[in-house]
Design a protein that fits this description.
By secondary structure, this protein is mainly β. It contains 9 helices and 42 strands. Strands 13, 18, 36, 37, 38, 40 and 41 form a 7-stranded mixed β-sheet that branches. A 5-stranded antiparallel β-sheet has the order 2-5-4-3-31. A 4-stranded mixed β-sheet has the order 1-30-29-6. 52% of the residues are buried.
């Protein structure tokens, strides 16, 4: 284990000694950017980063979520960007480019993360934080920013430049190159840039999170929000088919801190703001309207048929590069992956808890899919890490699954690459340690960051007293599973000191080796664009509306159009929510089993508003930032264009053929539910989705079919009547006398 110690604050180092240590560190870093060869030869070089170990595993650099912080407690300075050449030799790229230091970490100190290589292999983009306190008690704010490096060859002098026109004053991480040379990355910039909404707080612990995926044109500064994630997005990539694939934290449930306050078991000081504005009043309320209460709220569940709803997973998602067509990868969901799913209602025998009692194609459960990587030899094959949320620095079991665009979710199976025991912190004979950051090389070799330690991270000790010693290693087959094999380096050691800022902390030992990526040319995939399906295309033609004209109209107003053909249809594996559905008034009906039939009359939409604040236990002053709450859609332009609804707030009617069509706000997370005529929820969406300005998004049905519905039917192909009526209404609004009076969107 590396050594560390915190020097007492009563005897701080003199400023002269601090400067001397800093000078020695800079000289050492500049003088020794190379290291001897180690490990097996590879076809191409490998970029990776080193990181000073951090024992804490809650919202720190290696954590599952909230890992975007740049303060000294979350990410110690002293790591670097390295390249391992094909012959095994190493080069410290940041040191060779004049960045970083050993010894005392001061104004020029750095930490590095998330390298990604350009299409032709000539350069790379990564995130770096620069700076550390230069004296005791110095408090400063630091941010991860995007940088680009060129000159990666063994005899090159690398050059590092900061990416221009990126959001300043925010943490920008996990960058990748788009097929059009835009940069796609995650950031904690608020959805609309409002300073008073910073930071966005996650739905789980009220901890700061990133706000989703963003796209930047460095030349013009054009910045777009591709996916608004209330609890965060992580580690995007563009796969061989042009899909932007990433992990989204799906946590659409009510606020557990507010529940604890309401039940008297917590003292978080939660409250609601009246609206999202900077001067919004603090309400004497913490009310929530969607989804249904958690099981702990026995007071709210009493006298109802609701079972109580909890939801928490990190699953693979996909979007196009422009942010359109957002969905779980290949429509994979918990019904194909999870080992347990609760039912939503308690009084319907057709609804059951799933615990593996009925067959599905995938035999292996998957709880989380972190740090996704595609296999270059098998397009559409993804490797990921299934790890606990806490205690292992997002390391666990290596898994894989084949999900090319042509494979439906009903025919995707998870393969356990390492033994299932590696997803836990219990030592067993089959537990070969914990893994993270999987990488499949072009020759098929599997690489990962590995530690032989099998337990949970240590609870005590200094900030760097980590039991985890991540090293990059090849994986080799051992019986039915893969285990860690040869290390790619001899270990990269460093001695550093820094102010935290109150205490002088020292560390000496091997650094973590993380985030490997192969430096090789890759063919740019074809850029994907959303296509209007034939049934909807035919309605546009029949009504006489040009889809391009409608898209332009919506884009100018920050709106999208959502269409579903038949909401009475549900996927055959989903037996946890009502599936015998009928349009109220005797319309279309889909029955999957004898028993209760539910009438649905309206689709009620909810938008993600940052309204939840909190003070903590011992203060009356609100903490910075706000958590998202689901609120009935209140965008003024969308509501006007949708027309008057007799249903609940933010709703549209379900047509007799089971279809719905609605204008909704773009670039803001949205969700919805089907309700009966009285506005009571029947089937609730479990995900947040983001739509793009001008997008026309068609879903055949609400829980899209992997293959069959409950009645054994395939995807609906009816021409949605709700779309026809909405387009007719839109044409009337665009009559010459009315054109000038259509407002821009007010969210």
């Amino acid at each position: 284990m590396p050594s560390f110690r915190a020097l007492p604050t009563a005897r701080p180092l003199s400023r002269l000694l601090v400067f001397a240590l800093l000078a020695i560190g800079l000289a050492s870093a500049a003088a020794a950017p190379r290291a001897s060869a180690a490990g097996p030869a590879t076809t191409y070089p490998i970029l990776f980063v080193t990181q000073v170990p951090i024992r804490a595993d809650f919202t720190t650099i290696g954590a599952v979520f909230g890992n975007h912080h740049a303060d000294m407690q979350s990410v110690a300075r002293g790591g670097d960007l390295w390249i391992r050449y094909a012959d095994g030799s190493l080069k410290n790229l940041t040191a060779a480019a004049g960045y970083g230091s050993a010894g005392m970490q001061g104004a020029g100190a750095i930490a590095v993360r998330d390298p990604a290589v350009y299409w032709d292999g000539s350069k790379a983009i990564f995130s770096m934080v620069v700076g550390a306190p230069t004296q005791q008690y110095q408090v400063a704010t630091f941010y991860w920013q995007l940088y680009e490096i060129s000159g990666l060859g063994p005899s090159d002098t690398p050059v590092i430049t900061k990416v221009p026109r990126q959001p300043a004053g925010f943490n920008n991480i996990s960058p990748i190159y788009g097929t059009d040379d835009r940069i796609i990355f995650t950031s904690d910039r608020p959805r609309d840039g409002s300073a008073h909404l910073y930071p966005q707080l996650d739905e789980y612990e009220l901890a700061p999170t990133n706000s989703g995926l963003w796209s930047l044109d460095p030349a013009s500064g054009d910045l777009r929000l591709l996916n608004h994630a209330p609890s965060g997005d992580f580690t995007p990539l563009i796969d061989s088919f042009g899909r932007v694939v990433f992990t989204q934290w799906d946590h659409l449930q009510r606020d557990q801190q507010a529940d604890a306050d309401a039940m008297g078991s917590g003292s978080y000081g939660t409250f609601n703001y009246a609206d999202e504005s900077a001067g919004a009043a603090r309400l004497n309320s913490r009310a929530e309207v969607f989804p249904e209460p958690r099981s702990t709220r026995t007071d709210l569940l009493a006298g109802t048929n609701l079972a109580g709803h909890s939801f928490n997973q990190f699953f693979p998602w996909q979007i196009n590069e422009d942010g359109s067509e957002s969905e779980v990868l290949n429509h994979l969901g918990r019904h194909e992956l999870h080992g347990y799913i609760a039912r939503s209602l308690t009084d319907d025998a057709n609804l059951v808890e799933y615990y593996g009692q009925y067959n599905r194609f995938n035999p292996n459960r998957l709880e989380n899919a972190l740090q996704l990587a595609e296999d270059p030899q098998h397009p559409g094959r993804f490797y990921a890490i299934d790890a606990p949320e806490f205690g292992t620095h997002a390391s666990g079991q290596v898994v894989s699954f084949d999900a090319p665009p042509t494979t439906d979710a009903d025919h995707i199976a998870v393969t356990y690459v390492t033994h299932r025991d590696t997803a836990s912190t219990t030592a067993t004979p089959n537990h070969s340690g914990h893994y993270r950051d999987p990488l499949v090389l072009s020759d098929g070799t599997l690489v990962a960051a590995h530690t032989a330690y099998t337990g949970e991270e240590l609870k005590g000790g200094g900030p760097h007293a980590s039991a985890y010693d991540f090293r990059l290693k090849t994986l080799v087959k051992n019986g039915d599973y893969w285990v860690a094999g040869q290390a790619l380096t001899d270990g990269i050691a460093k001695s550093i000191s820094y102010w935290d800022p109150d205490t002088l902390v020292q560390f000496s030992g091997n650094l973590w080796e993380l985030s490997p990526v192969e430096v090789r040319p890759v063919a740019r995939p074809q850029r994907l664009a959303a296509q209007l399906p034939p049934p909807e295309q035919a309605i546009f033609q029949q009504v006489g509306v040009d889809p391009a004209a409608l898209r332009d109209f919506l884009a100018q107003r920050g709106l999208a159009l959502v269409v579903s053909r038949n909401v009475t249809v549900r996927d055959d594996l989903d037996k946890q929510q009502p599936f015998n559905l009928r349009v109220a008034g005797g319309g279309t009906q889909t029955t999957g089993a004898p028993g209760k039939i539910y009438d649905v009359a309206y689709a009620q939409f909810f938008q993600a508003d940052q309204l939840r604040g909190w003070t903590g236990c011992c203060s009356s002053t609100p903490n910075p930032g706000r958590r998202v709450l689901a609120q009935p859609m209140h965008d003024s332009t969308a509501r006007m264009l949708n027309g008057l609804s007799k249903g609940p707030a933010g709703s549209v009617s379900v047509a007799a053929d089971g279809s719905l069509a609605a204008f909704v706000p773009a670039r803001r997370a949205m969700t919805w539910q089907l309700t009966d005529a009285a506005g009571t929820g029947v089937v609730r969406e479990r995900y947040w989705l983001t739509f793009q300005p001008g997008e026309v998004r068609v879903c055949a049905n609400c829980h899209g079919l992997s293959q069959f519905d409950q009645a054994g039917h395939t995807t609906p192909t009816n021409s949605p009547e709700a779309l026809r009526q909405l387009l007719k209404s839109w044409k009337l609004l665009l009559a010459p006398a009315n054109q000038l009076y259509l407002p821009l969107s007010r969210q």
